[in-house]
Amino acid sequence: MTRLVVAGATGYLGRFVVRTAADRDMHVTALVRDRRRVDGADEHVEVDYLRPETLEGVCDNADAVFSALGVTRQRDKVSIADVEHTGNANLLAEALRAGTPAFGVISVIHPEQFAGAELLTHRERFIAELRDAPIASTVVRATGFFNDIDEVYAMARKGRVWLIGSGTTRINPIHGADLAAACLDALGTGTPQIQVGGPETFTMDEIADLAFRIADRPRRVTHLPDWLVGAALATSRVVSPRSANIIDF
C-alpha cells in the first residue's frame, strides 16, 4: 500500500492518519471540505461529499481509501445522515468506479450498545453497504479517543466537572497516533475488522481526578442522574435536533 486517500483528513483521527501514512512513505491525498491543509499530505483536494461530481478522480491510482469522515461540530446545515451515510457512500461509489482495491472506515466498539443513536444508525448502515460491496473492506472499532475527554479537562480548568451517572463507567481511550497506526496496519493487511483501545482503563471519576490534578484545581465533581440528562435531551431535540443527536451519542 503506497498511495492512500484520506477522507475527513482535517478531523482528529484524520490528521493522525495522514501524518502516520506520510511517515511510512505513502503518497497521501487528503480530502478536505475547505482550504485547510494537513501536515504530511502530498495533495489536498477540496470536495463536497454530497456532490459526487467533486469526488471524480480522487481515487484514481489509489491503493486504498480510509474514511475518518463523520459528524462532529460542523455548523452547516447538512444532516447526520448526509455525512455518516450519504457522504461515505458517495466516496465508496467513486472508489469502486476507480477500481480501488481497499476501503477502510472508523466506527465504535460494541455498536449494539448505541442502539437508537442516530449517528451510529447511519454509520452502521454505511458499513453494511461497504461489506456488501466488491472491495476489500476494513472496519476499525475503537473505544473513546483522547480528544473525547478534552471536555473533562476544560471543565476542570473552569472549576467543576459534570458527569453523567455515578462516574463508575469505565473507558480506555486511545491516542490518535496509536489509533492511526492500528488503522493503517489493519487496512494494509486486509483485516476485515479489528477492535482497538488504549492501554489503560479509567473510570470517569478517575479521569476527572486526573483533569483536576493537571489543571491544578481543587476537585469539584457533580454527578447528573440519567433521568435529568434524558429530560434535557428531550428538550434539546425540539430546539436543535442535530445537536441533541450528537450529545445523545
Description:
The protein has 249 residues and is an alpha/beta fold. The protein contains 8 helices and 11 strands. The strands form 3 sheets. It has a 7-stranded parallel β-sheet with strand order 3-2-1-4-5-6-9, sandwiched between helices. A two-stranded parallel sheet has the order 7-11. A two-stranded antiparallel sheet has the order 8-10. Helix 1 links the parallel strand 1 and strand 2. Helix 2 runs parallel beside helix 3. It is globular, with a radius of gyration of 19 Å. It starts with a strand and ends with a helix. The mean pLDDT is 90.
Defining key terms:
single chain; 249 residues; alpha/beta; seven-stranded parallel sheet; 11 strands
Write the layout of secondary structure elements.
Elements: E1 3-7, H1 12-23, E2 27-32, E3 43-46, E4 64-67, H2 80-98, E5 102-108, H3 118-132, E6 136-142, H4 150-158, E7 161-164, E8 170-171, H5 176-189, E9 193-196, E10 202-203, H6 204-215, E11 221-224, H7 226-239, H8 241-248
Parallel strand pairs: 1-2, 1-4, 2-3, 4-5, 5-6, 6-9, 7-11
Antiparallel strand pairs: 8-10
What is this entry, summarized?
With 249 residues, this protein is α/β, with parallel strands linked by helices. It is built from eight helices and eleven strands.
